[in-house]
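Sequence, please.
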């Protein structure tokens, strides 16, 4: 094993990244709509079982919706896995994605506030959850001259992460992108204060945040987004990149801005906005996330049999 493997990762990780990239490059050779139907079918079928995503989605769904039948839960899980598979493929080749989605509808109560803040060079901090595909939102805003950046989590495989990081720049169409950690978080905040348009997702599990009800169950939630919005005087508003019923096109809702008050109140309001959108379209949310893993009651209301 050479020094590069020791420094960056293992030989096994390198080999896996090569196989994964070969898979994605092979998929790209297929017609756009066909490759998306194929990856969706694979994710709902064998890949969903192999990765454990189907089991995780059903565990989350039974925890939140114990009153639903197995068929209803399975249908939502299928929609979530379909969306996840398509999203993974779309995000590997963002130029292809944008070329096939030239007219993403941008609408919502907060659209006028957003465009005014942008024209006034006011900092803008969006919040959302893992809903639909985040890149549809960035593509739609870029057509209005707005570049959106954010704080990202690197992939666990360092070799595959190199490819992933490049896709986030969308060939120069992205705003600044920051890695987690003290330095990245500080740089994120400084960029926001200087007037950048950035985004933070609020549906990530954190071990030490306050417990805020999310879809009827307490979930540890970070106050970072609301705190940064207040300190930078940023417009604080939600967006939702929603996959349409054809599974290929998108529309993006810009929600009503949240008024500055205190971080906890604002975060509860932000969480409520996300809850309402998920309730309208649960299949568009990533149920494969471990959102409630710090909830001591997680998994108890209904066990997988």
């Amino acid at each position: 094993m050479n020094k590069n493997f020791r420094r960056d990762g293992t030989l096994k990780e390198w080999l896996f990244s090569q196989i994964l990239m070969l898979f994605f490059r092979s998929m790209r050779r297929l017609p756009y709509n066909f490759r998306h139907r194929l990856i969706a079918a694979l994710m709902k079928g064998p890949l969903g079982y192999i990765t454990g995503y189907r089991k995780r989605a059903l565990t989350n769904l039974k925890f939140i919706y114990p009153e639903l039948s197995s068929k209803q839960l399975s249908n939502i899980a299928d929609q979530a896995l379909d969306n996840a598979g398509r999203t993974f493929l779309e995000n590997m080749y963002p130029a292809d994605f944008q070329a096939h989605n030239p007219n993403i509808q941008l609408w919502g109560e907060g659209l006028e506030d957003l465009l005014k803040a942008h024209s006034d060079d006011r900092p803008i901090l969006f919040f959302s959850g893992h809903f639909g595909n985040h890149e549809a939102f960035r593509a739609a805003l870029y057509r209005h001259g707005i570049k959106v950046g954010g704080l990202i989590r690197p992939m666990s495989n360092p070799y595959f992460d190199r490819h992933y990081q490049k896709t986030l720049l969308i060939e120069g169409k992205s705003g600044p992108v920051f890695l987690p950690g003290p330095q990245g978080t500080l740089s994120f905040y400084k960029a926001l204060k200087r007037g950048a348009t950035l985004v933070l997702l609020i549906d990530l599990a954190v071990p030490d945040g306050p417990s805020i009800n999310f879809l009827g169950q307490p979930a540890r939630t970070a106050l970072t987004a609301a705190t940064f919005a207040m300190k930078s005087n940023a417009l604080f508003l939600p967006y939702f990149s929603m996959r349409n019923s054809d599974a290929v096109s998108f529309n993006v809702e810009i929600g009503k801005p949240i008024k500055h008050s205190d971080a906890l109140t604002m975060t509860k309001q932000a969480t409520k906005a996300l809850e309402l959108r998920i309730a309208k379209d649960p299949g568009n949310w990533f149920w494969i996330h471990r959102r409630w893993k710090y909830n001591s009651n997680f998994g108890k209301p209904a066990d997988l049999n």
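Residues 70-92 form the longest helix (23 residues).
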